[in-house]
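agent> fetching stored inputs for the magnesium ion docking request
agent> found them:
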Amino acid sequence: MVHEMQKSAGADILLDQAEGLRRMRVQKAVKVIAVASGKGGVGKTNIAANLAIALAQKGAKPLLFDADLGLGNIDILLGLSPRYNLSHVISGEKSIQDVLVTGPRGIRILPAASGIARMAVLDSQAQASLIHAVSQLDIEVDYLLIDLAAGIAGDVLTFSRAAQDVIVIVSNEPASITDAYALIKVLSRDHGVKRFRVLPNMVRDQHEGQLLFQRVAAVADRYLDVTLDLVGTVPMDMALRSAVRSQRAIVELYPDSPAACAIRELASTVRSWPLPSGSAGHMTFFMERLLSAERAQQNL
Ligand SMILES: Nc1ncnc2c1ncn2[C@@H]1O[C@H](COP(=O)(O)OP(=O)(O)OP(=O)(O)O)[C@@H](O)[C@H]1O
Ligand SMILES: [Mg+2]
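agent> prediction call returned; pasting tokens
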């Protein structure tokens, strides 16, 4: 990678571009799903990680992207210790292949915490090298799950805007509901995101999940131009806490627990969503959309 990036002769650049285009053509469609919440601590990381593993259990090839700025912790949750992250790709020290780690069921994880912190200040050369690096990604990926930070900071909005689907996790407490609403409001009003998949987490039962969804949907319908779908519900489950303590995924450690069953159902629902067609579904396209969302965010 570093060697390739340092080449400057015109012929080499042309060869690089041809190689990049060839790889882009063989890339399959990728469904990009951002997992957001507004309020922190409502279960984004647990659901993103377990959803990825549940998708892999169903034969998919997910890539889990830790896009939580300061507090990225997928690695801790799954008991992994990555040595590098996306910042090493941007600086040219490592290839994207070197940075990926493999988790349960062969899911791929891209540890990105400090890399994303620098994304806002990437110059055009660094942006080009990032797009190039992603186009060199030589693994089969059909789902890209993005575990976001809490809140409505710039990078959360950028990723949500660039994703094809946004899952908003909400728990049954006032701050979670108002923060989820605030996130939906700013994404729809300022970033053109019009459809949201709402996932109540830590609820007593499906009924409580439905009521929670209706509370969010009622306000959103009244004041915003958005479509909200209830995408499932995940119950409060002590088995999940026990899995967290063991640094294992609940869908692996306690596959029959209520939360694991709910997450597998969520995975089946996600599998039923159509994959994007044509080049718009390629990872490279997503990266370009991400970077243009980043630029738009800076101009707001
Ligand atoms: N369904 C559940 N049942 C029981 N506890 C849960 C459930 N979901 C989440 N939790 C608890 O909430 C904690 C926080 O979960 P998680 O780290 O996934 O949240 P987060 O939204 O990613 O947080 P942050 O905003 O800090 O990134 C977990 O460690 C666990 O204790
Ligand atoms: Mg988290």
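agent> quick read of the result: The first strand starts at residue 31 and ends at 36.
agent> awaiting further instructions
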